[in-house]
């Protein structure tokens, strides 16, 4: 029998930006919630936009958690910001909010 530790599995989980916050991506007004997408620290209410290593996308994070679950720390500035913002706007249209 092989047992997997839930803690070990959780520690290796990669984060993805929460689509519910798509309307706040690229606004630069500090309105994005933790786990919402971002293109810079200015988007996030926490003041921390962390790059997700596996996707290259930004996700708002608490500073204390900015290096967890595949995040590379605060201060991320998306080099593809225009495309990320366009993708977020398309998501807003798709979900209707």
Task: Give a brief rundown of this model.
With 97 residues, this protein is an alpha+beta fold. The chain has helices at 6-11, 81-95, and strands spanning 37-38, 49-51, 58-60. It has one domain (11-83).
Tell me the total number of β-strands.
3
The shape, in one word, is globular
Helix content percent band: 10-25%
Rg of Cα set: 14 Å
Distance between the termini: 47 Å
Structural class comes to alpha+beta
- Given as residue ranges, the uncertain stretches (5+ residues, pLDDT < 50) are none
Q: What's the number of helices? A: 2
| Total separate domains | 1
Secondary-structure element series: HEEEH
Strand order of the largest sheet: 1-3-2
Biggest β-sheet strands, sense, barrel: 3 strands, antiparallel
Chain-averaged pLDDT: 91
Strand fraction: 5-15%
């Amino acid at each position: 029998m092989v047992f997997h530790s839930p803690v070990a599995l959780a520690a290796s989980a990669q984060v993805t930006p929460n689509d519910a916050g798509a309307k706040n991506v690229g606004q630069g007004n500090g309105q994005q919630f933790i786990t919402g997408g971002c293109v810079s620290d200015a988007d996030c209410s926490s003041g921390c936009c962390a790059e997700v290593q596996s996707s290259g996308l930004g996700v708002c994070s608490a500073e204390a958690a900015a290096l967890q679950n595949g995040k590379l720390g605060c201060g991320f500035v998306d080099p593809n910001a225009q495309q990320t913002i366009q993708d977020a706007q398309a998501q807003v249209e798709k979900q209707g909010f």
